[in-house]
Amino acid sequence: MLRVSCRVFYHPKVSFSSKPYYDVIVIGGGHAGTEAAWAASNMSATTLLLSQKLSTIGEMSCNPSFGGIGKGHLLREIDALDGICPRICDISGMQYKYLNRRKGPAVWGPRAQIDRKLYKTNLQRAIFNKPYLHVKAASVEDLIVEKSKDGEKYICKGVITSDGQKIESSSVIITTGTFLRGMILLGLERFPAGRMGDKPSIGLAQTLEKLGLKMGRLKTGTPPRLDLKTIDFSRLEYTLGDDPPNPFSFLNKKVWLSASDQVKTYLTYTSPETAKVVQDNIHLSRHIHEEITGVRYCPSIEAKVLKYPENSHQIWLEQEGFDCDIVYPNGLAQGFPFDVQAKVINSIPGLEKTRLTRPGYSIQYDHIDPRQLKPSLELYKVSGLFLAGQINGTTGYEEAASQGIIAGINAASKAQSKEPFIVSRTTGYLGVLIDDLTTLGVIEPYRMFTARAEFRLFMRPDNADLRLTEQGYKQGCVSQKRYEIFSETKAEIERCKELLKSIKRKSKEWTELLADNILFAFRGNTKSAYDIMRTPGVSDHLFELLRKEGIQITEDEIILQRTLFFLAQYEKLLDKEKSQIEEVKKEEQLIIPEDFNYSDSRLSLPNEAREILSKHRPASIASASRIPGVRYAAVTALVYYLQKYVATDKNV
Questions:
Q1: Which sequence ranges are marked TM in the entry (predicted)?
Q2: CATH number of the domain at 480-587, out of 1.10.10.60, 1.10.10.1800, 1.20.1280.260, 3.20.20.220?
Q3: How far is Cα 22 from Cα 13, in angstroms, rounded to an integer?
Q4: For the chain, percent of residues with pLDDT exceeding 90
């Protein structure tokens, strides 16, 4: 294991008097908080990260994995903006795998099973040694807030810790996860906690209420942990990682371990006995009887059995570390008492004699209605106050980290008097996530899926750097070194693409050259190597053939070959998609003012549309058009009004 050294960097702008001052203060050391602090300090903003305990910074509180379908896209985009989480995954994983490979590459999902201890160690090592970033153990109980000059809004100017210390700043980011009035449910018991063993944040929740913010309540859960030595793996199916393993970060050509060093992930299923145990004890689970909304796509075993009592449900058994005997049973979240949880576990094949090392539990927590946020994740009502992570109604490490990096960039940008950094939903899954939250709000914990994105062919995992890195560099969050690496990669892709287009042969010749590797003959006249790339299964053989003929494509064969193959395969489809993207971008440029008056008599809208738009307050025409209940005629009337009156009428 790597040794963690804690070294704090100071900057001339930081005053260490009784009233220290920072550009950005981040509250919370989870995945949203660490990503926010990293992004802000990347922009040379003096940043303070506050966490209740330094030892829990980077804690993987639930599942020991990152990525997956949709979520893997987010990680690649975080990396494209010079985030930290994907790089840590590349040096902390136990198994690396691309999910959804039976479908097209646009919806593949890079995923990694992670060593919890190694991840936290590596992340803390990076965070504690980051220039411009100061880390402190403290609990925040209140905010330093003043009324704006017009008296209608607030301005956040810092935080107040539980010991009464005031720390001033230009921007504050709250990333409290499940800690806002967190309440753990275990069987019929309930007790205050942000997670098992940590105190909830009560004062901060009360402060947000006093600011007049609309808040709600959500719940989530985690499964019990199992003793690896008591599991009968001989009866279970297993899967292996990819060979070779694929990195999350564009900076890495490979991950830290070889294919042969990756661990196995085992699969088992619930049994009819499992369903009976659940049904017989359902009255002992407060979790399932609470009316608070839980996670739709990661339900508890109680919810699954009640909805599908006859089904067998998959349970993936994932080891939590190389030197750890704890196993995470993915798919067995529950809120039963400890003894009932043991019965549930022992009813599953392979787990008949398995011992629990820790019970699962349900947790309820406060969240903010995300429609109160700008696309920059700054609150409309409180200038300088940004929110990221589960506080905005999301679930998952990746969704939290995605909001964290955007909030961090924008908090630093505000401190540096820069324009906000906005990722369009036509450019990245980061944009889809934030647009969905700020436009539609949440009725349940939000989780990312590829199906949420309209332009999936364009927003693939392989081209996240081509979509976002240059935009991030212009904003100042991408380092010069990283930008140079990106520029070299981009130039190499273009060079290879043009080279492939220049290599032309008759279709008959291509058929003869690749005869052993294709099942059909190429038709037509002359084709370029780039045209041939569109044929599934030909890519690797084509490159091998060209290299034998002395044509140098690239040293970085696997990663760049894949990118070139995707570009060739999707080129014609992308031409159609790009025209749609341009239409959406035009609508996004039609900005609706923050204080827009939907009651203006000159605005020809039905009363229902006025109410819906007043409630959601979309940031642009594109966002307004995606709100359920807002019809095309209402959007057209809104466009007409904006174009005719807003540019000249100061009273609008």
A1: none
A2: 1.10.10.1800
A3: 8
A4: 66
Residue 595: per-residue pLDDT: 84
Q: Are 27 and 207 in contact (CB under 8 A)?
A: no
Q: Where are the beta strands (DSSP E) in 338-462?
A: 356-358, 361-368, 382-383, 385-387
317 bridge partner residues: 266, 329
3-state secondary structure of 436: helix
Q: So what's the pLDDT on residue 4?
A: 35
Residue range(s) occupied by CATH 1.10.10.1800 in the chain: 480-587
Residue extent(s) of CATH 1.10.150.570 domains in the chain: 589-646
pLDDT at 556 over 70: no
Strand pairing report for 265-269 and 237-239? antiparallel
460 neighbors 105 (Cβ within 8 angstroms): yes
**Band of the pLDDT at 568, cuts 50, 70, 90?**
confident
Render 568-598 in DSSP notation, one character per residue: HHHHHHHHHHHHHHHHHHHHHTSBPPTT--T
Q: Are 72 and 86 spatial neighbours (Cβ–Cβ below 8 Å)?
A: no
- If we measure between CA atoms, which residue out of 158, 189, 202, 185 comes closest to residue 52? 202
The second-level CATH assignment, the architecture, of 225-361 is: Beta Barrel (2.40)
Residue whose structure tokens are 């010991």: 163
* Residue 184 near residue 190, CB atoms below 8 Å: yes
Domain span(s) for CATH 2.40.30.260 in the chain: 225-361
Overall pTM > 0.85 = yes
Q: Is the pLDDT of residue 579 over 90?
A: no
| Strands of the sheet with 225-227, listed across from one edge | 237-239, 265-269, 314-319, 326-330, 225-227, 356-358
* Model confidence pLDDT, tens digit, residues 114-162: 999 999 999 999 999 999 999 999 999 999 999 988 777 899 999 999 9
Query: pLDDT tens for residues 249-300?
Result: 999 989 999 999 999 999 999 999 999 999 999 999 988 877 777 788 788 9
Q: Are strands 93-99 and 109-114 parallel, antiparallel or unpaired?
A: antiparallel
Q: What is the rounded distance in angstroms from the CA atom of residue 158 to the CA atom of residue 168?
A: 4
Cite the residue boundaries of each domain of the chain with CATH code 3.50.50.60: 21-223+365-475
- Integer Cα distance of 274 and 272 in angstroms: 5
Q: How would residue 586 be classed by pLDDT, with cut points 50, 70 and 90? A: confident
Task: Pull the structure tokens for residue 615.
Answer: 């409630």
Which residues, 6 or more positions from 41, have their beta carbon under 8 angstroms from its beta carbon?
A: 47, 130, 131, 132, 133
Inter-residue contact 415 to 23 (CB < 8 Å): yes
Asked if residues 7 and 134 have their Cβ atoms less than 8 Å apart, the reply is no
Q: Say yes or no: domain 589-646 is CATH 1.10.150.570.
A: yes
Residue 343, SS3? helix
What confidence tens digit (pLDDT) does each residue in 360-406 have?
A: 999 999 999 999 999 999 999 999 999 999 999 999 999 999 999 99
Phi-psi region of 460 (alpha: psi -120 to 50; beta: other; left: phi over 0): beta
Neighbours of 243 (CB within 10 A): 10
